[in-house]
Amino acid sequence: MAPKLAAQARREFEPPEAEAGPEGALLDLSHLSSIVGYPLRRAQMAVFEDFARRFQPLDLTPAQYSTLSTIGDNPGRNQSEIAAALGILRPNFVAMMDELERRGLAERTRSGVDRRSNALALTPTGRELLTRARVVQGEQEAAIEDILGRGEREALVEALRKLATLA
Amino acid sequence: MAPKLAAQARREFEPPEAEAGPEGALLDLSHLSSIVGYPLRRAQMAVFEDFARRFQPLDLTPAQYSTLSTIGDNPGRNQSEIAAALGILRPNFVAMMDELERRGLAERTRSGVDRRSNALALTPTGRELLTRARVVQGEQEAAIEDILGRGEREALVEALRKLATLA
DNA sequence: TATTGTTATACTCTATAACTATA
DNA sequence: TATAGTTATAGAGTATAACAATA
Question: Is B18 left (phi over 0), alpha (psi -120 to 50) or beta?
Fold first, then answer.
């Protein structure tokens, strides 16, 4: 159950601000790597790539995972509410729900109170998959903690949450 | 010179793990906001939106800024080297250079040593724009420091750099 | 044979306008 | 009149294959 895959090959030293070229000559990236935006993007890409590898057996993208998780924790909410909470535009959320429904993971139920809206819920299959997905997600989190340590990982999450209030 | 715009309206409290819906009912997002990947993506989007606003007068995207900065700090390198350092695929970097050249910000010079490759450099105009862009970038960094404080901002950059070694 | 720059192309994400059915 | 879901569509960003020129 405990993930051992992750803490293996770690670069022990790296030239702090440079990137290796083909013949070994290094590029100066100091201006970029000292500001928040650039390493933020690189980290996001790395974490999502790692996510893709781990979730390949479950066939879930980050967006699908976050949708399943949010529906599971908020059953009965409609599409607009779930989409808005996840920062997904309503038009783009339609195909998302089409696919989850096609795979038998989630259901839309035309609400009796307001017949315009679709109450969303997970199917039993969807709940099972979400349970398994959260285990896999926990493994990624453990891999991150192997790199950062518990305290720095928690500090990172807190800093990122504050950063999200910038825009 | 010091940016005062940023530290103004900050949410003083927020329900730690929930999102407001239209009628005020809150969604449970606790499972997502406690893992790294989700706030990482939200923070990245927020920082890039803020970047887009600040750089609208200079008409620079994050990718264009990082390209200008890297060429400026590494003049004479060829397209493959600059693109690889920035994680941009060579085919996609062609249009990037086309546009920077069209705007008179950068130049490709067919190398004498290896006539396959284009040595890249900034034009005087490009150097001027880069100087101005770094001032704007410094303002974003100051705005982030208004939110996080100096120490937490530096800790964030360090954590993000480590995270990028995950994939 | 391998590499640099390039073209063509495709696939995903994201964004906007407009329709329909309900309210 | 406004809202929920939907369709159509357009634009980024990102990915791969293949070609010409050069090594």
Answer: beta
Q: What amino acid is encoded at A76 in this protein?
A: G
A48 with A62: CB under 8 angstroms?
yes
CA closest to C21 C1', residue: A116
Question: Angle of helix A62-73 relative to helix A79-86, nearest 10 degrees?
Answer: 130
CB-CB contact of B137 with B48 (8 Å):
no
**Res B18: pLDDT:** 67
Question: Torsion-angle region of residue A16: left (phi > 0), alpha (psi -120 to 50) or beta?
Answer: alpha
The sign of the dihedral angle between the CA atoms of A64, A69, A70, A74 is positive
Q: In Å, how far is A103's CA from the nearest CA of chain B?
A: 22
Q: What are phi and psi of A58, to 5 degrees?
A: -90, -10
- The Cα-based distances of A7 to A3, A30, A95, B38 in angstroms read 9, 27, 37, 22
Chain A partners within 8 Å of B157 (Cβ) = 33-36, 39
Q: What tens digit of pLDDT does each residue of B92-129 get? A: 999 999 999 999 999 999 988 899 999 999 999 999 99
Nucleotide nearest to B91 (CA to C1'): C6
| Cα torsion angle, B19, B21, B24, B29, sign | negative
% of chain B beyond a pLDDT of 90: 83
Strand D contact with B21 (CB < 7 A): no
